[in-house]
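Key result, reporting period 2: structure in, sequence out.
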């Protein structure tokens, strides 16, 4: 049997690298990393790269994801997040490839929280605006063959992101050091293992549409850090409430928690934090 050809953008990043690992045993995986020359701001090259590799599936994980950098460089962030996505969607349309686009809880304004797919997105920062524009480009070009998956606060150890916030917090708490965490910023922390398994299940069934796939609990960063501390057996006073930073150059939405809906038809229910923590691979 021939192996499916799967191209993964952002393949050196957190989610992309773990998707490479998950798909490699059964698919022919093409890692479209910047280190390998796939610089997506060279939008005019994207069609040629894809035509040459001829993937049947594209897992589009690359993004200009730093919120501060997006605010400081709106044009550059738009090229990578919107224009490159449009070029990838155009390939999917022309070659009947299946596309998975990782979108974000930041497409919502954060005023209310617990957003479903029926809620109208209204991004309040440049990053969120580019993610929504990318979603709309996909909806215009290849809606019947694309999965737009909005996720939120992904956690779990990964070699590609040794400095991720959760790993950093675990290290500090294990060393008896304090962790300051926002008390008024909420999302739905999502275990990386659930996200990767969910994407595999959706690819196998070619699920198309815009769906949420996030953890089952709405939590502040402070509550999340407290759970990490409890799991480690760290003294509770090490986790301290921090107010939202006043000096940030971008708007940080207050509550972008997501609710899973129809996606649960095709994927297993994401684990709550307490069940996921032992699987996270947080070492000493
Ligand atoms: N992690 C989360 O909590 C979370 C939550 C919601 C949504 N998402 C979405 O999930 C996707 C993957 O996120 P992640 O956490 O894996 O991000 P990540 O670790 O920051 O990885 C992003 C990847 O994008 C690549 N990239 C950035 N600019 C590029 C460019 N100009 N050309 C080519 N590649 C470029 C980076 O390449 P280099 O390695 O060369 O820098 C990096 O490998 C993103 O679309 C993100 O919006 C993530």
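The corresponding designed sequence is given below.
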């Amino acid at each position: 049997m021939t192996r499916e050809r799967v191209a993964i953008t952002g393949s050196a990043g957190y989610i992309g690298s773990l998707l490479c690992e998950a798909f490699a045993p059964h698919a022919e995986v093409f890692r479209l990393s910047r280190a390998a020359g796939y610089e997506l701001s060279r939008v005019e090259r994207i069609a040629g790269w894809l035509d040459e590799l001829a993937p049947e599936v594209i897992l589009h994980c690359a993004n200009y994801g730093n919120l501060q950098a997006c605010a400081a460089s709106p044009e550059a962030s738009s090229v990578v997040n919107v224009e490159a996505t449009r070029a990838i969607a155009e390939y999917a349309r022309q070659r009947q490839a299946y596309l998975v686009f990782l979108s974000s809880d930041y497409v919502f304004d954060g005023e209310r929280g617990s957003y479903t797919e029926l809620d109208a997105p209204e991004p309040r920062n440049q990053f969120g605006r580019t993610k929504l524009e990318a979603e709309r480009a996909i909806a215009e070009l290849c809606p019947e063959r694309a999965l737009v998956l909005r996720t939120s606060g992904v956690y779990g150890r990964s070699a590609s992101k040794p400095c991720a916030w959760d790993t950093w917090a675990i290290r500090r708490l294990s060393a008896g050091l304090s962790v300051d965490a926002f008390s008024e910023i909420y999302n739905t922390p999502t275990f990386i293992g659930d996200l990767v398994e969910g994407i595999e299940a959706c690819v196998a069934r070619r699920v198309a549409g815009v769906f949420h796939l996030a953890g089952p609990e709405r939590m502040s960063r402070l509550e999340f850090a407290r759970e990490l501390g409890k799991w480690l057996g760290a003294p509770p006073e090490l986790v301290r409430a921090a107010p939202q930073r006043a000096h940030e150059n971008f708007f940080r939405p207050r509550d972008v928690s997501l609710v899973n809906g129809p996606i649960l038809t095709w994927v297993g229910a994401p684990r709550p934090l307490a069940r996921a923590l032992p699987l996270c691979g947080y070492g000493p």
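The radius of gyration is 19 Å. The mean pLDDT is 96. This case is discussed further under Risks and Mitigation.
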